[in-house]
Amino acid sequence: MEFQLLLLCSVWALGVCAEQEVENLSGLSTNPERDIFVVRENGTTCLMAEFAVRFLIPYDVLALNGIDLITEQTSVAIPRGAQIAGKCGPSESELQISWAAQAFNFHIYFSKEKRVLGSDGKAPEAEVWKINRVQLVYDTSENTHFINAYNPGKHTASTHRLSALVTPAGRSYVCAAQQTLTLISSDHQKGVTVSIYDIQIQPFDINADFVFSEPYKCVTDQREQLEQTLPLVLGLILGLIIVITISVYHFHLKLNAAHTQQPTLPRDRSLYKNM
Known about the structure:
- This protein is α+β, with helices and mostly antiparallel strands and 275 residues long.
- Helix content is 16%, strand content 47%.
- It has one helix and 15 strands; from the N terminus they run βββββββββββββββα.
- It has one helix at residues 219-261, and strands spanning 2-9, 17-24, 34-41, 44-62, 69-77, 83-87, 92-99, 104-116, 125-139, 154-158, 164-168, 172-175, 179-185, 191-202, 215-217.
- It has a 15-stranded mixed sheet that branches.
- The radius of gyration is 32 Å and the shape is elongated.
- The chain starts with a strand and ends in a 14-residue tail after the last helix.
- This is Lysosome-associated membrane glycoprotein 5 isoform X2.
């Protein structure tokens, strides 16, 4: 478990010194690929993030002829011992993760805004939070992942005009399905793919220490849950229809049996005295 204690005088905190703690709790995760990061200020949790992430980074190597360049790809994951830092504010927050002796630096920027959630544009404005920027700084001179990289050095890959994981304020975003982002790199505009899954994130308005607020499920998870529940509901409805049909059938048989057993009166009334 990584633990750091920083004393920061943040502009976001309106000039008041805030005691900030950042913790890498990934060792507590039952999923070896899932990381857990916590940022606390003044003894209170202000940002929590749990997710699994993998980066697919392209880089150039020299061809066998010594002239041409070939683009290779390397897959990178965040290790357990990653260093973290973070900032919390009323409308902007940030999570920074670095590893491999600063060869990789992953930044996630969050912001709050008001927007109309209804599709007709008539609904009142509601406050939401979102990821508005993602950035990865990587060094291709790190030879564990970038083998025989041509012209190695640091590069920055980032998003442009991002609005991801939009979530109502006061709630945490939850999504088991994979979310994919493409970052444009300073290395000849190459595309770096960021795949994030098994996510639960909340960068604002955490009410209880180390506890996420009410979850807000992504559309993909909601659809998958519906697909799993629908056959069960249809099965229950079909079973109910069968039970009702059998009950009506038995009731009909009983009515017919009762009608058959009733004595028939003779039409000749003179015969009544013999009955």
